[in-house]
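Project standup — Tuesday

K.O.: blocked on the structure for the chain from last sprint. Re-posting the sequence here as requested.
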Amino acid sequence: MPWIATGVFVYQSFISDSKMWAIYTIPKAFMVYSITSIATLFVSGFLVDKFTGRKLIMYMNIPLLFAMITLFYFNHEIFAYFFLGLIGVSNGLANILGSSTWAEIYGVKYIGSIKALTTAFMVFSTAFGTAVFGLLIDKGFTIENIAFLGASYVVISLALLIIIRKSIEPVRLPN
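H.V.: unblocked you, prediction finished:
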């Protein structure tokens, strides 16, 4: 999720130009991103307590998939709000489900080290996303092509999660 979201944030003018949206459409739509992200933070905390992060993590990027589908198919400015709102939902889920899932699988004794490693990967993926988007744009890819690639990536990651979900059982590390 971070590489797609960061690519969208950095190249929002490219997206606006490609979709022929007004220059302030995406900046205004960031309010919807913020609202859905915050609302999802509250809701996902409740959901994790009720169902566990391990059971919910496979659903984390489904709103991101719908965001990519929205970007691919729709050109009207109103869909910028849906697009960023859906990214906000995935962001809210990711912030809660990531940490809680690691704690469920490995316990809390090494959660600092685990969180440091996963945060480093997240920061790397944001830089990676900016570079990938830039290279694709330089190669002449349209925003629809990039949205299709993003959606494909999400589908592949969801398929992999479904395949390995049974093997994600808690591992109790020695004290």
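K.O.: great, moving the ticket to review. Residues 78-106 form the longest helix (29 residues). Residues 2-167 form one domain.
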